[in-house]
Amino acid sequence: MRRFSLILTVLLAAPMLLAAPPATPSEWRAKVNEAMPLLGHRNWILIVDSAYPLQASPGVETIETNADQLDVVRHVLGAIDRSIHVRPIVLMDAELPFVPEEDAPGVGTYRTEINDLLRPYPRESLPHGQILADIEEASKHFNVLVLKTTMVVPYTSIFIRLDCKYWSADAERRLRAKMAAADATEDSKP
Fold first, then answer.
1. Cα angle vertex 47, ends 45, 51, to 5°?
2. pLDDT per residue over 29-83, tens digit each?
3. Strand order across the beta sheet in which 60-64 lies
4. pLDDT > 70: what percent of the chain?
5. 83: closest CA among 127, 10, 34?
6. Checking CA distances to 114, which of 7, 48, 105, 170 falls within 20 to 30 Å?
7. What is the pTM of this model?
8. What is the Cα–Cα distance from 124 to 92, expressed in whole angstroms?
9. Hey, where are the domains in the chain?
10. What per-residue string of b and e applies to 61-94 under the rule 16 or more CB within 10 Å gives b?
């Protein structure tokens, strides 16, 4: 009987002992700072509301920050700005401008604050489902860092797709045009 009680106690206590406690403010910041040199173009950093689902894809790492969303966005953008290799492309839910204050108290203030914070950065708005599909596809090949916040307003997640800081889309187009022209010249030779 004593052995049974001991086994039962261990089994009941195991989930509590194995569960990872939420990250402290310094832990999630340290994780962002540690990951930044490793992340590159095509990686994603998501700063999400508290109801964002825990994804099962192997390339997705989720960290509970227990922090205000705007504070997390500020820190992540600061870390990206300080990097020498990546720049952010910010995606936001196309649904956000249509969320009414009566259904989501605080959404108007949030929209003003996030627009002010993101003003210097290129932004795209896409339907939430499309962004999730893009992230799911990307996570098959590239890492995605998800930072869950204490935000409780719908459609407020900020999705950051990282791009190369030292090589622009225009530079890539010019390069491809030169390569195509060289191929055409080579093909026209007898």
1. 130
2. 999 999 999 999 999 999 999 999 999 888 999 999 999 999 999 999 999 999 9
3. 60-64, 144-148, 44-48, 158-164, 86-93, 123-126
4. 86
5. 34
6. 170
7. 0.82
8. 6
9. 21-188
10. eebbbbbebbebbebbbebbeebeebbbbbbbbb
Distance, first Cα to last Cα, the chain:
92
Q: What is the DSSP string of the chain?
A: -HHHHHHHHHHHHHHHHHSPPPPPHHHHHHHHHHHTTT--TT-EEEEE-TTPPPP--TTEEEEE--S-HHHHHHHHHHHHHH-SSEEEEEEEETTGGG--TTTSTTHHHHHHHHHHHHTTS-EEEE-HHHHHHHHHHHTTTS-EEEEE-S--STT--EEEEEEESSS-HHHHHHHHHHHHHHHHHHHH--
pLDDT exceeds cutoff 50 at 130: yes
27: left (phi over 0), alpha (psi -120 to 50) or beta: alpha
Q: Which residues pair with 126 in a beta bridge?
A: 93
